[in-house]
Amino acid sequence: MRTLYDRLAEYGRSDYYGFHMPGHKRNPELLGEGFPSGIDITEIDGFDDLHHAEGILKDAQERAAKVYHGEETHFLINGSSVGILSAVAGVTRRGDTILVARNCHKSVYHAIEMNGLNPVYLTPGFHTSVQMNTEISAEEVRKALERNPLARAVVIVSPTYDGVVSDVGAIAEEAHKKGIPVIVDEAHGAHFGFHPYFPGNANTKGADIVIHSLHKTLPSLTQTALLHMNGELVSRRKVCRYLHMLQSSSPSYVLMASIDSCVDLLENRRKELFDPYVKNMRGLREELAGLRWLKLIQTDRYDFSKVVISAGNGGLTGRQLYRILLEEYHLQMEMAAGDYVLAMTSVADTAEGFRRLACALREIDAAMGESAETVSLGQGTGSLRKKKNIPCLPRPDVVYNSSEIQDAFRTRFLSWRDSVGRVSAEYAYLYPPGIPLIVPGERIPQEAADVLQWYYEMGFSVEGLKKNLYIEVLEQEA
To answer: What is the C-alpha separation between 172 and 153, in angstroms, rounded?
Structure first.
């Protein structure tokens, strides 16, 4: 089967002259040969239309559904976020109640706000020693469904940014007993199901809507993703209607070709890609398991493509370890959090890349002294007193829907300390991973203010706030 890229490349080499968009007219002399202008076209004859797919794009989406074991699959060229927004809007009506994992990406909260929904939060477990959230339990979902019989959907993230996997099958079973769908943000698990080393994807676990970010863990361009729909509990027509509303009306053929080429790799070169990758991954994890001060972190259900290294035993913060790896070893980690760093891997990683990471961590580990209180490695990484056992996601007290407070109340700015007990009018989060610590409409607990202050002292940038070190809160409650 020829991929969309093959067709685009063939067209780019042809003598067809385009009196149509885009304005670069496939002329490489204008943008430079590094830009893929030769395959960047619009919806012309023979190349279908993503919003009314009947030809090559319809075939490509059907192939993606087959490869991912989904019943119906749609290309996303505005990232997973547009899939999440469309999924949540497509299964609810304004004012509905939904069950939401509190560690979901900010796009889920934006969907709640846009649609005026009432969120009931499912709180993940918490790993106190490394300050990392763990999974959502099926038992908590069951209890929440009993307490909220009018809930219209369950939304979870699995795997999390840190690689923690929830029991999607058990959660789906509980939700389906009540006749409501489960939306799984599996953005970070697009590689699931293609090798026994990794879990099966949520399409095979009973999820009704699954969103995958191909670009996060597979060879695909940034902003490419898939939305899958299964079963009869979801109005597919309604979800598609929101996709048509929220996705660009001029979808990029470069991005769609990237999606189709990635799916082609999964269909035809799966073993060639995954076998050496898993071999390298196993070797890396075995080597890192022998470190003395640094610690390789994982949970019972886990995505082994994520490499989470805790530095707490040696007295380093995640931020300090991140800077050492970047400045002294030229290794760019995905993220630093409280006590740990996250290295994301994929089938595109090389044995040399894994070797460099292992050697760097071994050297850092060997340089750590006997004291677990202080460490000095390189310039600018001295001792730092750490505040322990701060939960990353405090249990929220939801006072208003986030949509209710927009332009409805007078607000003021208070310092983090003085904002405790007041209702927030804005978000506060670290990016990455983009999980809100504070959401509009929630009463701000002391622990949330402590988390913000702690991260600020660690050198992290707190995003979402209009004014640094302050939170916009409601002047008074109705």
So the answer is: 10
Nearest Cα neighbor of 72 from 237, 299, 223 is 237
Residue 142 burial (C-beta neighbours within 10 Å; 0-12, 13-18, 19+): middle
Residue-averaged pLDDT of the chain:
89
CA distance 231 to 72: 10
Compute the 3-state secondary structure of the chain and give helix, strand, coil in percent, each to the nearest 5. Answer: 35, 15, 45
Say which range, 372-376, 426-430, 471-475, has the weakest mean pLDDT: 372-376
Residue type present at position 267: E
User: DSSP secondary structure string, 353-405?
Assistant: HHHHHHHHHHHHHHH--S-SS----STT-----------SSPPPEE-S-TTTT
> Strand, coil or helix: what is 120?
strand
- Antiparallel, parallel or unpaired: β 295-297 and 306-310: antiparallel
Q: Give the pLDDT band (50/70/90) at residue 377.
A: very low
Pairing assessment for the beta strands 182-185 and 209-213 based on DSSP bridges:
parallel
462 or 288, greater pLDDT:
288
pTM of the model: 0.88
* Residue 200 phi, psi dihedral angles, 5° rounding: -70, 155
Q: How far is CA 196 from CA 80, 170, 193, 271, 343, in A?
A: 25, 20, 7, 11, 21
The count of C-alpha atoms lying within 13 angstroms of the C-alpha of 243, restricted to the half-sphere facing its C-beta, is 27
User: CA-based Rg of the chain, rounded to a whole angstrom?
Assistant: 23
The pLDDT tens digits for 333-367 are 999 987 899 999 999 999 999 999 999 999 999 99
Q: In sequence order, what are the beta bridge partners of 229?
A: 72, 209
- Residue 205 is classified by DSSP as G
Outline where 148-252 has alpha helix (H): 168-177, 214-217, 236-246
Query: Largest Cα–Cα distance in the chain?
Result: 71
